[in-house]
Design a protein that fits this description.
With about 120 residues, the chain is mainly β. It has strands at about 5, 10-15, 20-25, 30-40, 45-50, 60-65, 70-75, 80-85, 95-105, 110, 115-120. It starts with a strand and ends with a strand.
Length: about 120
Amino acid sequence: EVQLVESGGGLVQAGGSLRLSCVGSGFPFEDYAIGWFRQVPGKEREGISCISSVRISGHKTYYADSVKGRFTISRDNAKNTVYLQMNSLKPEDTAVYYCAARSLASSRYDYWGQGTQVTVSS
């Protein structure tokens, strides 16, 4: 059974930090790019970061402008885990955060987690 499980969300004050984890199972994790998305009720889902699979030289990363310089994505394939370190959090970062996995052969994300809530108080 394929699973992606996010954890690490919670309530934090503005300026604080959280580290989200995304653990994958049931598929060859190292062969998949992993992305982080977030969604606020009534708004479109926003792709905020992703990290390439091990097959691409180095682990290429991407950040949306809204999080660049504050968030850092990394992966530990030995633990089938991708992390999203979130620093200098702002109230507008409040959302449900999802991770998703995409194979090299796919143009869309194949697997999604259930999400973890991040709430940043002002």
